[in-house]
Amino acid sequence: MNLILLFQDDFIHNTDRVLLRGRRFRHVLEVHRASIGDELSVGLLNDRIGTGRIVTISDTSLDMDVRFDCAPPQALPVTLILALPRPKVVRRVLRSASALGVKRIILLNCSRVEKSFWQSPFLTQEAINEQLVLGLEQSRDTILPEVLLRPLFKPFVEDELPGMREGTLSFVAHPMAAEPCPRNIGRAVTLAVGPEGGFIPYEIEKLLACGFTLISLGERILSVETAVPALLSRLF
Q1: By CB distance 3.0 to 4.6 Å, which of 48, 85, 124, 209 could disulfide with 89?
Q2: % of residues, the chain, pLDDT over 90
Q3: Is the C-alpha dihedral spanning 33, 36, 39, 40 positive or negative?
Q4: Domain spanning 4-70 has what CATH number?
Q5: Which residues lie closer than 8 Å to 9 by C-beta, 6 or more apart?
Q6: Chain centroid to CA 22
Q7: CATH 2.40.240.20 domain position(s) in the chain
Q8: Are strands 61-70 and 49-57 parallel, antiparallel or unpaired?
Q9: Out of 1.10.3720.10, 3.40.1280.10, 3.40.50.1360, 3.10.150.10, which CATH number does the structure's domain 78-235 have?
Q10: What's the pLDDT band for 51 if we cut at 50, 70, 90?
Q11: Is the pLDDT at 161 greater than 90, yes or no?
């Protein structure tokens, strides 16, 4: 936790003082080993970054006086379309995408996504936000990404995706693609990443018809949780 992310309900009345309990309180004491008077990096959700000074500590909570004076890091200009991974993998991918600065993520159904994945408790808004917040805390960011669930492939690609990708360079990561993934392109991107077994030919055809280009990271076939950060690091 490189930044303590704060929420509006952490504030005590209408003051600049916040009350921390639970996970963040334990982290400050056990990891930072902080004491009264110490200053820590803090950020207000969807707002600015600053500093918190510890003023009191009890057995179960602490109070900090906070001030916010810096903008959060610049977001990556990317929309990440991700075929829904296995439940444990989706947690890790959401966390890393959030840490890398992705601000819009679409979790999409496709032929090789098991139906049971959509029943996972990890897809509740609370569970999704938990992973996004962990990514923000890691990277010292405050802007919560938007995550959209799209359990129907064809309606999404035909009805939503054309407008969503307008004005962007649009790529499908595919291990058999001849064109290598470009580097440091300096443009807004819509990036589609398939499931572990890849998109089926029909799905590739629909994405190509929508204006996407196939790209590859080389001859190695990577897992989703490895491919996503590798692609983002290469593109930006």
Answers
A1: 85
A2: 95
A3: positive
A4: 2.40.240.20
A5: none
A6: 23
A7: 4-70
A8: antiparallel
A9: 3.40.1280.10
A10: very high
A11: yes
**Residue reference for tokens 């938990």:** 130
Q: What is the pLDDT of residues 109-125, one digit of tens each?
A: 999 999 999 999 999 99
Q: What is the pLDDT of residues 64-86, one digit of tens each?
A: 999 999 999 999 999 999 999 99
- The residues of the chain that CATH labels 3.40.1280.10 are 78-235
Q: What is the pLDDT of residue 151?
A: 98
Q: Give buried/exposed letters for 99-117 (b at 16+ CB in 10 A, else e).
A: bbbbbbbbbbbbeebeeeb
pLDDT at residue 219 is higher than 90: no
Cα–Cα dist 83/173, whole Å: 11
Q: How far is CA 232 from CA 4, 30, 80, 198, 226, in A?
A: 25, 33, 9, 18, 11
Amino acid at 223: S
